[in-house]
Amino acid sequence: MINEEIRDREVRLIGADGAQLGVMPTRQALELAEKAELDLVKIVPNAQPPVCKLIDYDKHRFETAKRERENRKNQKVIALKEVQLSATIEENDVITKAKNAYKFLAEGDKVKVSIRFRGRQITHTEIGLRVMGDFAKRVEEVSTVERRPLLEGRNMIMILAPKAEKESKAEKANRIKAEQQKAASPETKVAE
User: Fold this and answer.
1) Torsion sign, CA atoms 42, 44, 49, 54
2) Which phi and psi angles does 142 have, rounded to 5°?
3) What CA–CA distance (Å, rounded) separates 32 from 11?
4) Which helix (H) or strand (E) element contains residue 69?
5) Which of 23, 50, 123, 148 is deepest in the core (most CB within 10 A)?
6) How far apart are CA 140 and CA 160, in angstroms?
7) Distance from CA of residue 112 to its chain's centroid?
8) CATH number of the domain located at residue range(s) 80-162 in this protein
9) To which H or E segment does residue 135 belong?
10) Average pLDDT over all residues of the chain
11) What confidence tier does 185 reach under pLDDT thresholds 50, 70, 90?
């Protein structure tokens, strides 16, 4: 609630600089806000009396929205990509699918590997297990098996997760800087 929306008889007022201005009638607080060309904003409505602050409300809204945008930008969204295999897949096709899965995992996404059994293939699920095991071994240097292969109806599904988080740019820069300092230090030159 801001300005005239505040219906309380008296409020505890905090100045724009954070100083306590004390408890005063709402009308007097509104007059102080108008003199300072600021808004009277209720920040703690449940207190007795409610706490209000003198701030530039439009600027406050802008900064809050900006902070939320920054937080959303910094979030890491992990997508679930899918790679479909078959029980009778050929070697070259497995290599191609493994390259795609490798690329997805390197980008930090999870990979859902699925095999659909058609017709009488459902009686030979051990072939599907072998294909899944071979596929997991091909991408094991960048992945871990998050969910082992399970049969769900006519589909066998396995989920692979990236092995480790990618090093951030700041961490990478710090690591390189530390390596350079270590290489340039006089102790290593004396030992040689």
Assistant:
1) negative
2) -120, 5
3) 13
4) helix 57-74
5) 50
6) 9
7) 20
8) 3.30.110.10
9) helix 125-138
10) 84
11) low
Q: Does residue 1 sit in helix, strand or coil?
A: coil
Domain 3-72 identical in fold to domain 80-162: no
Straight-line distance from the first to the last Cα atom of the chain, in angstroms, rounded to the nearest whole number? 71
User: What is the model's pLDDT at position 184?
Assistant: 73
CB of 106 within 8 A of CB of 127?
no
Query: What is the arithmetic mean of pLDDT over 11-39?
Result: 86
- Write the CB contacts of 16 (distance below 8 Å, at least 6 apart in sequence): 36, 38, 53, 54, 55
Cβ atoms 23, 12 nearer than 8 A: yes
Q: Where are the domains of the chain?
A: 3-72, 80-162
Thinking of the domain 3-72, which architecture would CATH place it in? Roll (3.10)
Tokens at 113, concatenated: 């590997």
Q: What does the block give as tokens for 42?
A: 């209720």
Q: What percent of the chain is modeled with pLDDT above 70?
A: 91
Nearest CA to 163 out of 98, 95, 110, 96 is that of 110
Q: Would the pTM count as exceeding 0.85?
A: no
Separation between Cα atoms, residue 6 and residue 28, nearest integer Å: 12
The per-residue pLDDT for range 51-92, each reduced to its tens digit, is 888 888 888 889 889 988 888 887 777 788 999 999 899 999
